[in-house]
Amino acid sequence: MKVSRSVSVDTVPLALSPSMESVSVFEPAFRGIVTSSVVPATGLKRWAAPIRVAIVDVSSRKDTINNGRVVLINPDITKWGGFAVGREGCMSVPDYTGNVIRAEKITLECLDEMGQRRTYEMEGFKARAAQHEIDHLDGMLFLDRLVSRSGDLFRRKAYKKKEE
Q: Helix, strand or coil for residue 46?
C-alpha cells in the first residue's frame, strides 16, 4: 500500500506523492509526451497514476560531462561509487537549499522512450541530478537526505531585481 506523507519546513507543508508506478506500455501518445517534453521532468502525470519517468538534462552546465537530454523510464541504480557532500535545491522547496550526500559515480539501468533497455555511466553533477530525480520518483525530497537537519538546511538568498 502506498501512502502520501507531508513534510513541514518553517510551517509550509509539502505534499509528497507516493512512489511512482512502473511504465509497461509504450504507446505512441506516451512516446510523444516524453519526446516533446522540453524541460526536465519527473513522474509524468498525464496517465491515471504518476509513472516512473524522469527527464534529466544538465547540458547547460558547460563544465559537466553529460549525455545531453536523457529519458529515464523505470530507472534503477545498480552501482554506486564514492560519496560526496554537495549543496542541492529543488523547485519543490524553492526557499531552501541543503547539504546532501550522494554517490559521485553511478551505473543506472532504465528503458528509453521506445522501451529499449539502456545503461548509463554517470559521474559528478550528472550523477547527482539523476539521483535527485530518482528520489522524486520514490516520493523523496532532498530534505530526506540532508546530512543534518539542524546544520545543513539553508534559507535561499533573496535576489533583488536591478532597477533600470
A: coil
> Which residue, among 19, 8, 14, 13, has the nearest Cα to 149 in the 3D structure?
8
Say which residues have a Cβ less than 8 Å from residue 159's Cβ, sequence separation at least 6.
none
Quote the distance between the C-alpha of residue 126 and its chain's center. Answer: 11
* Residue carrying the nine cell digits 546532501: 100
pLDDT beyond 60 at 34:
yes
pLDDT confidence band for 99 (50 / 70 / 90): very high
Residue burial 102-130, b: 16+ Cβ < 10 Å; e: rest? bbeebbbebbbbeeeebebebebbbbbbb
Q: 16 pLDDT exceeds 50? A: no
Q: Which fold has domain 5-155?
A: Peptide Deformylase (3.90.45)
Which is catalytic among the residues 21, 133, 163, 164? Answer: 133
> Which residue type, as a one-letter code, is found at position 130?
A
pLDDT at 134 over 90: yes
Largest CA distance in the chain: 55
Looking at residue 65, its pLDDT comes to 67
- In the annotation, is 133 catalytic? yes
pTM > 0.90: no
